[in-house]
């Protein structure tokens, strides 16, 4: 035993017949265990971050799966590979007592693709520790034996926040409890996903085919960023996502703007008018029926109002003059579906700019969905809106006959990603998690009804019929998906502490 307090607690457990299954660790003991084991937990995180993890590459998936398998086997978990039509999943289970209930943890292991040239370090998979000094993030050297870390230091690497940091928070807590011979009062199942950033295409079928294996009382999601306040955060839902690509056709090929300007229409202007028709100047989507079905009750508004936010300070932080007017607050805005232009392409810019009338314009759209606005409906509403703007839609290529017949031509393609989910905040799962976190954080806990992003949780909820909550650990200013992704060390420390609190909390 490293810690005399843990030894005392363990002895008391034996004397009171709780044996190694005791769960009466208090906040002081949990914090002490976290701090004393932080160096090894931090070292393990750095090793994990060195593994490239783009889900498009099978060899990278295999290396991460092997690493995870080895870690959970050392924790005396039984592991198995769940084969799918695409990338495999990894399942791990530890039965502490046969008559215990089970909790399922979801870990995302893959990360977004990397453009190394855009990072402030040579290799995004070589983690670097930095401190904010003189207005910039500067690398610092640390001793491998060091056990004193400034909470405001950050580790910069791909997937530090999304989501190897949260995954290692759980793993580190399990390692600490194993060393202390302290067992949870429930059995633990873990499912590891290696293609979350690709929309987890094989997950729904895998969950359906392994329904009994994955059965549990609750699902805890180790993924997602904390609330803007950076307080410990629980999120009870996520918006789904659907994407669409609209290609507005111009001439058969790009034309010289001097020879054909004033004669051949430039499709950019038509595309601009189409884009403009999607939202008014208040930011409200103008597609009829887009928001139909979304209603916030007084109780919903009460819960949302409890979240510590200020519109003015948020606008200042984001660098915007004012927000769109879909709702009166940021939290309320997240409860509605959104429509975003995520990309736009027409001809050339910068040093490549040319005096051309482009042959087409590509408009990339993403729509975030809530339970009341299913993807199929929203995509059909968008399609109908484009037609009402006078467009004839084709599958992909406009033929010569199409060009001779229709003034406005566009191609419309779409893809449905993760479905939305939402768990009632006033149920056992919320009470359990709040009780656990209050042990170590007091009342400084944010409960969010939903997050603006997407998570592939609907297959678990629909198939297993269980509630799900996301345990948020990373700092909100973490640059996930982009260059210089990072994780604040204090958040990682609190992530481990959160997991220890949850793992030592008895199920209701």
């Amino acid at each position: 035993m490293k810690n005399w307090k843990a030894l005392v607690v363990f002895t008391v457990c034996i004397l009171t017949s709780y044996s190694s299954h005791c769960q009466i660790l208090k906040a002081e003991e949990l914090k002490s265990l976290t701090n004393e084991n932080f160096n090894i937990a931090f070292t393990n995180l750095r090793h994990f971050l060195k593994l490239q993890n783009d889900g498009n590459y099978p060899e990278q998936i295999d290396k991460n799966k092997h690493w995870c398998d080895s870690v959970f086997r050392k924790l005396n978990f039984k592991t198995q590979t769940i084969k799918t039509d695409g990338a495999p999943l990894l399942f791990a289970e530890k039965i502490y007592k046969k008559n215990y209930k089970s909790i399922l943890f979801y870990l995302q292991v893959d990360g977004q693709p990397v453009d190394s040239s855009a990072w402030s370090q040579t290799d995004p998979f070589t983690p670097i520790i930095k401190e904010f000094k003189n207005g910039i993030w500067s690398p610092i050297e640390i001793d491998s034996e060091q056990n004193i870390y400034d909470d405001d230091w950050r580790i910069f690497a791909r997937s530090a926040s999304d989501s190897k940091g949260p995954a290692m928070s759980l793993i580190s807590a399990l390692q600490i409890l194993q060393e202390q011979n302290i067992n949870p009062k429930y059995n633990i199942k873990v499912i590891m996903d290696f293609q979350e950033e690709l929309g987890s295409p094989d997950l729904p079928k895998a969950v359906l085919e392994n329904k009994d294996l994955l059965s549990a009382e609750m699902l805890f999601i180790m993924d997602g960023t904390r609330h803007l306040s950076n307080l410990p955060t629980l999120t009870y839902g996520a918006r789904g996502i659907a994407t669409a690509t609209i290609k507005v056709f111009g001439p058969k090929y790009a034309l010289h703007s001097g020879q054909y300007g004033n004669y051949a229409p430039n499709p950019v202007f038509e595309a601009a008018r189409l884009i403009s028709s999607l939202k008014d100047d208040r930011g409200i989507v103008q597609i009829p029926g887009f928001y139909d079905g979304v209603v916030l009750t007084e109780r919903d508004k009460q819960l949302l109002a409890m979240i510590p936010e200020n519109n003015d300070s948020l606008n200042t932080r984001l660098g915007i003059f004012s927000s769109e007017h879909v709702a009166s607050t940021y939290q309320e805005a997240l409860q509605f579906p959104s429509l975003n232009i995520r990309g736009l392409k027409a001809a050339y810019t910068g040093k490549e700019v040319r005096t051309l009338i482009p042959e087409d314009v590509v408009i990339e759209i993403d729509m975030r969905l809530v339970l009341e606005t299913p993807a199929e409906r929203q995509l059909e509403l968008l399609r109908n809106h484009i037609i009402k703007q006078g467009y004839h839609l084709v599958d992909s290529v406009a033929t010569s006959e199409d060009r001779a017949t229709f003034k406005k031509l566009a191609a419309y393609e779409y893809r449905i990603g993760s479905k939305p989910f939402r768990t009632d905040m006033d149920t056992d799962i919320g009470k359990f998690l709040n009780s656990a976190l209050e042990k170590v954080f007091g009342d400084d806990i944010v409960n969010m009804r939903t997050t603006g992003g997407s998570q592939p949780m609907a297959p678990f909820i629909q198939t297993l019929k269980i509630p799900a909550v996301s345990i948020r650990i990373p700092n909100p200013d973490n640059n996930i998906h982009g260059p210089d992704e990072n994780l604040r060390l204090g958040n990682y420390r609190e992530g481990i502490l959160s997991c220890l609190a949850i793992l030592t909390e008895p199920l209701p």
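The chain is about 35% helix and 20% strand. The first helix runs from residue 4 to 15.
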